[in-house]
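Propose amino acids for all 481 sites.
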């Protein structure tokens, strides 16, 4: 018994926290800070930025109107008042479902693309509204009518982007000779904002197993262009917890009307996460951060897994935002739907060789590149010790906090085990300006002045008193990304 206990404590004594010693990507950008969920009961969210304003539109649970909000920050959209610019009509298209509006500014005018249905029928098409005036919330809106496509079939989720000087429309549509599937992703160039030029082509069908759960769906396409590539995200399967996101990629210079120009990720790139309790994430858009340096992904999901009845009758799809990270190879890293509360950050060491703090509870120095979420942490403020302290909580394993165990040793431990004041203090830090770079931060143990979280040359994360040498000061300085 004694020996067993000693062995166990020897093993747990080895558990420690590690850095990933790997160069940070060249395109790293400063952290952003938003509070999730941004907006309750708003699905298919679209946030765009124009002339210093952020605009928000989304599907409302009543499916009966088009709403707009605007604010000077993304967070400001959460409390901005909402204007209804259009309401359900008495008959015809527009008397039923109102889904997934997007607001775009094209050639000096505002356009809203929206899917409008017929009352009591599963029959929807894409319509366009044109707004004249500098502020779309007070603009005069004119219905430009329905977008004519190859077939008169189920059509929804239109979006638009410009590549190589051509304005394209992308959307989801039921294809007559694929009656077994609900919708595919379509693309066509636009002659004007309400008319496509020539025949559209399909660039993705719901053919993979994860695109066919509940319903066989590809929908909600949206484009982000970076690093010589066009990345097109879309959503797949039924709108319950199986809903998830896929990715198509094309080279910027390729012929986007040739389906062969697009390659499809064989696995979903953004899915439900039980640890963070986020379910059915999808129907996203992208917008840039206030400082213009980060890409923000906007999407909806639910805060619970199981729903009763038709998922469309459950109103609680919530609008969420989180930073989109980029890998060294120039492709996007979507990570996981992050937990509720403040959006997480990454901590990159200022030490030569850099690297990100990594969540790890094993004993040996881990090998391999960690998943993005293992290098993301929520800054709990106030920290577990209260006051002006902060604590660091794992994003991939919420409830696990960084704590000094003894001496130099730090570990990630479950918050429920931190029962005494002393334990809470040991998991709390004072946030100071970076010792070697004021743009960064230094984390001082809340109960031990002059003892800082730092990086050892081995890649181990430690608490260390510094002797004032440059290299050591750098090891205790971190950039938040
Ligand atoms: C998918 O197609 C089936 C069969 O036509 C239909 O019952 C269902 O409502 C459709 N679902 C969606 C999300 O389009
Ligand atoms: C521990 O953390 C989890 C996840 O953040 C949180 O839901 C829970 O309330 C926390 N419990 C305590 C005792 O702090």
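Proposal:
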């Amino acid at each position: 018994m004694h020996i067993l206990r000693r062995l166990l404590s020897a093993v747990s004594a080895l558990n420690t926290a590690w850095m990933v010693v790997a160069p940070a990507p060249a395109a790293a950008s400063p952290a952003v800070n938003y509070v999730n969920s941004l907006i309750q009961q708003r699905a298919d969210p679209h946030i765009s930025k124009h002339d210093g304003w952020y605009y928000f539109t989304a599907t409302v649970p009543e499916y009966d109107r088009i709403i707009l909000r605007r604010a000077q920050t993304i967070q400001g959209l959460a409390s901005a008042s909402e204007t209804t610019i259009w309401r359900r009509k008495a008959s015809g298209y527009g008397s039923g479902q109102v889904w997934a509006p997007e607001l775009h500014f094209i050639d000096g005018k505002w356009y809203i693309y929206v899917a409008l249905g017929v009352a009591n029928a599963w029959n929807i098409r894409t319509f366009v509204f044109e707004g004249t005036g500098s502020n779309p919330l007070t603009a005069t809106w004119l219905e430009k009518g329905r977008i004519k496509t190859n077939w008169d079939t189920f059509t929804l989720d239109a979006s638009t982007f410009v590549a190589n000087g051509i304005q394209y429309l992308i959307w989801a549509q039921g294809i007559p000779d694929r009656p077994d599937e609900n919708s595919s992703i379509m693309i066509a160039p636009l002659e004007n904002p309400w008319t496509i030029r020539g025949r559209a082509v399909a660039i993705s069908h719901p053919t993979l197993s994860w695109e066919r759960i509940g319903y066989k769906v590809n929908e909600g396409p949206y484009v982000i262009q970076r690093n010589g590539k066009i990345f097109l995200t879309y959503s797949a399967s039924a709108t319950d917890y199986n809903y998830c996101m896929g990715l198509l990629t094309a080279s910027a210079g390729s012929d986007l009307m040739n389906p062969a120009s697009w390659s499809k990720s064989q696995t979903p790139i953004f899915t439900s996460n039980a640890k963070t309790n986020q379910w059915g994430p999808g129907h996203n858009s992208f917008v840039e951060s206030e400082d213009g340096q980060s890409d923000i992904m906007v999407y909806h999901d639910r805060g619970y897994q199981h729903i009763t009845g038709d998922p469309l009758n459950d109103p609680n799809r919530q609008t969420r935002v989180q930073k989109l990270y980029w890998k060294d190879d120039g492709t996007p890293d979507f990570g996981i739907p992050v937990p509720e509360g403040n959006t997480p950050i990454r901590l990159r060491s200022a030490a030569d060789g850099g690297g990100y703090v990594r969540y790890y509870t094993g004993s040996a120095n881990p090998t391999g590149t960690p998943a993005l979420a293992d290098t993301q942490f929520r800054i709990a403020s106030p920290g577990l010790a209260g006051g002006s302290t902060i604590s660091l909580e794992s994003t991939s394993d919420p409830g696990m906090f960084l704590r000094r165990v003894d001496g130099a040793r730090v570990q990630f431990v479950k918050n429920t085990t931190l029962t005494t004041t002393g334990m809470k203090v040991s998991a709390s830090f004072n946030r100071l300006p970076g010792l070697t770079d004021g743009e960064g931060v230094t984390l001082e143990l809340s109960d031990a002045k002059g003892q800082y979280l730092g990086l050892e040359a081995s890649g181990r994360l430690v608490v260390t008193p510094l002797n004032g040498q440059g290299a050591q000061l750098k090891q205790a300085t971190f950039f938040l990304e």
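DSSP finds three helices and 35 strands in the chain. Residues 14-24+345-480 form a domain with the Trefoil (Acidic Fibroblast Growth Factor, subunit A) fold (CATH 2.80.10.50).
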